[in-house]
Structure formats: structure tokens, C-alpha cells
Amino acid sequence: MSGSVLPGERPDRLEEACGVFGVFAPGEDVARMTCYGLQALQHRGQESAGIAVGDGETIMVEKDLGLVTQIFDEASLAALEGFVAVGHSRYSTSGKSASWEASQPHVFAIDEVLLALAHNGTLVNTNAIRAQLVERGIQFHSTTDSEVASKVIGLATKETNHLRTGIARAMEILEGAYAMVLANPDSLYAFRDPNGIRPLCIGELPEGRGWVVSSETCGLDIAGATYLRDVEPGEVVRFNKEGMVSMQGVPPRQRASCIFEYVYFARPDSVIDGQSVYLARRNTGRILAREAPVDADLVLGVPDSGVPAALGFATESGIEYADGIVKNRYVGRTFINPTQAMRQLGIRLKLNPLPEIIGGKRLVVIDDSIVRGNTSKKLVKMLRDAGAKEVHLRIVSPEVLWPCFYGIDTDNRDQLIAANMDLEAMNEWIGSDSLAFLSIGGLREAVSDVNHPAFCEACFTGDYPVEIPEALAQKSFALQKGFEALYAPAAEAVDSQFPASSSK
Q1: From 329, 333, 364, 478, which residue has the greatest number of CB atoms within 10 Å?
Q2: Taking the model in full, what pTM does it have?
Q3: pLDDT digits over 82-136, tens only?
């Protein structure tokens, strides 16, 4: 199938939703520890960041737009005194981008008690719940699903008179992907959706000084915590002076951890469900070299996630590996609008080739994925302009054919080049000499050390582990049709779970 050129203003890769971090550690500088943890998780979101700290009586929060190091300094961290903390680094997939109101942790109150919630993932029934709550007179201050989750937790807690039970009750209503950490003034809570789509792990500080919860193990490492285990799907874990207590909030469903964590999202030094991310990426390159061999002089990896895979491809194929592309590691997401001339430079803001390495060479270029195709097209042209004789693209994930509704920044199939072009057309449009993707079987083989056999592969297969509301799955979100007409059946279902008295 052929397709038109896809829009170029959106990021040309799958973007993660957020990083979450939590600490319960009396006697420790939990604000500083959380700041370090968020720096370790900065790759998961760069639009805003925040830290909330509880001191036994209240919750204090500091959050703003920008990177962690732009928001927090000695003075702001010193003002956050306490022994329990949650932190968040945000990439927006739900709610207005670059909005202070949408930044997290989201602070809310249950009666007179303040709480702070940090969320990674996306709920799929947000609008149905919001419509029902608005009808009851409940006000919202942002468009995020995290605020919706906080309202549900608040109502459920009032209904049950117990926060942990209220969280479990809310989990019966919330649908989609969520890995959440929540703090009240004296306790830390961690909970995860029943499919375990987004990652969340638990670590213990030395000498029993406390516990740390993080989206990835690299966050535990920087805090000096030893990995204990992952938060199980549907589990609620509480940490306070009484120790660590677990309960099954909702029954676990078919396991569906996001397989793309191993391809791109997670840091290579993290371990997810027992699988080293770095070794998984090496494996993808090794397997792809068997599946799609090519005659070439050099193997190049597109920094950063493509480099381990390129090393695996080079080892398996016997083709020499070279550092032929340099990444500017100080160019992240920015709120400064580039000029038109800078937009035209495009990929060179972040990547630059080494002509003395690649000139006259036949290249195998390893990248993690192709989403909209614009970056790949610019990359190939850049390498040819630098003197490459041939450019063979090898992608260490299958074709991204379907949008993700669980916290990844793809809205619909029209944005996905592989859903609009066949392999030959993609190769021609991108301008590469050849193009090949890793098979879904090859990707599963690459993560064979994972301690469970099931993943969410919906972006490759269209098999969604959590049912997607029809309205959400449409090409256009069609909010102009009105919440009432669009979400009435779902709102009724939510209404039946909350007795009228809980709206007080």
C-alpha cells in the first residue's frame, strides 16, 4: 500500500509517558533522593517534573515545567522536609502539553488530608469517568487522567474509610495502563494495573532504612537501594513505620508488560522483570543479523538505543562496528521555538555523521523503530551527504502498525508509516538501499529471560490487552459530539459503582 508523506512536527518515535519515583525513609533526605531518582528517569519525560514530600502532618510540593535540574536547587530541596516523597517526570500523552496544571505529582485532598499522586501510563476510560463526575458537580483543574484517578481514589476512600481499600476500590473502576505512586503525610503507596503494562519496581535501602519505588531499576541504583521485586499486576503495596504491607487490590489479568520497554523506552542499565535491557538490545541485533543479512563494510548504531543492537548485529554478522554517528547529548526537549532554518536542519540538532569514518562505505544502520518515517528519511540523506556509498536500514523492532492507547504518543494509524505503506514503498520513500524489520518472533526471542511469557505487543499486532472504547479508537477523538452522547453508556457503568452518597 502507498501513502502520503506523514506530518513532521510530531516526534518521530514512540515517546514514553512518564517516570515515577517514591521513597519512604525516616531520617533520610527524601527530597534529594527523589531528585536523584528523577534524574535517573529523565529519559522517560522531559516536559515537567515535581516532588511532593510528607512530614507526618502535611504534604509540600514543588513542581514546574522543564528538566529536573532546571527545577530543583539546594534551596528548593531544603524546603521539602519530611520522610516520605513521590516524584514525577512527565511526557504528556494525556492532558495539555507543557502545562503547569498538568505537571505532577498531582496534589489533592480527602477531607482535610493532603495526598500526592504520580502516574505513568494512560487510562482508557477517563472521559467516561470525568463525564459522570462532572455531572455530580465535581470540578477539574486539568485535562489529565491522573486528576481523574485522584478523584476516584478520593471518593472510594471516603466510601470505605480506608485509603488502601479506597485505592483497591478505585482500581476496579480505572481501566488502562497505570503504574502509580501515592503519598499521604505518613505513608507511601505503590500500585499497578492488573495487566502490568507499565513497569514499577521496589528496592530496599541499606540496613533497613526504608524503601524506594521506581519505574526502572536505574532509579533504585542511584538511590543506593537493592532491588527486591516488581510491584505485581493489580497489587497495592504500602510502606510506612509499620513496614511494607501488600494486598491484592484487583485480581491480576493476563500479563501484558510493554515489550517496547526493551527496545527503546528503558535505560540500558535497567533490569525489567528479570531481563537486562542492554542484553535484550544486543540480542535484537544478533537475531536481526540472521533474519536480514546484508553485504556491507560497517555497522552503525543510531545513538543511544541503537548502539547495543548494532554491536549485536556486528558480532553475529562479522561486519565491523564503527561509531559513525555522534549524538549531541545536551539537546533535549525544549520550550524554545526553533527558527524555520533550524527546523530544516532537523536531525542535525541531535545527530551528526563522521565523514572520515563512513565516506565511501556500505553501511548497515541499526535503529530501534520507525514510526512516522521522517527521521529515518533525514538520517539516510544525512549519511549520503557525508559520503556513504550505500545505506541499509535495519530496525530492531517489528513494524509499528497500530496506535498505543496505554501511554505512548501515537494517536492514530494515519501517523504510522508502516500502516500506510508496504516495505518496498517505505524503503523508496525513506531513500535507503534496503530496509528490514525484526520479526515479532525475533523480538520475543530477544527477551527470553523475562520471568513471564506474555507482553503487550499491540503496537505491532493490534491485539489490545485492555479493551479500547470505540470513541477513543476512532481516528478523531470527536469531543465536539459531546460527552453525553459519546460516553453515556460508560458513564452509566461508572455511576452504578458509586452510590449517590459518595459524591458528597
Answers
A1: 364
A2: 0.87
A3: 999 999 998 754 444 456 667 899 999 999 999 999 999 999 999 999 999 999 9
Q: Tell me the residue ranges of DSSP E strands in 329-462.
A: 351-353, 362-367, 390-395, 434-437, 455-456
Which range marks the domain in which residue 426 is found? 271-461
Contact 347, 353 (CB under 8 A): no
Residues 332 and 203 in one domain: no
Among residues 169, 101, 83, 186, the alpha carbon closest in space to that of 139 is found at 101
For residue 476, tell me if it sits in a domain: no
Please say whether the dihedral angle defined by the alpha carbons of residues 218, 245, 58 and 210, taken in this order, is positive or negative: negative
Radius of gyration of the chain (CA): 23
pLDDT category, 142, cuts 50, 70, 90? confident
Whether the CB-CB separation of 106 and 389 falls below 8 Å is answered with no
Residues 297 and 240 in one domain: no
Does residue 220 fall inside a structural domain?
A: yes
Q: Please report, for the domain that includes residue 383, its CATH number.
A: 3.40.50.2020
Instruction: Please tell me whether residues 288 and 215 are part of one structural domain.
Output: no
Q: Collapsing DSSP states into helix, strand and coil, what is residue 260?
A: helix
When divided into structural domains, the chain yields a total of: 2
Domain annotation covers residue 152: no
**The amino acid at 108:** F
Residue 491: CB atoms within 10 A of its CB come to 22
What torsion, rounded to 10 degrees, do the Cα atoms 473, 479, 481, 487 define? 60
Let me know how many helices (H) and strands (E) the chain has, helices first: 18, 24
DSSP line for 159-195: HHT-HHHHHHHHHTT--B--EEEEEETTEEEEEE-TT
The catalytic residue positions are: 18
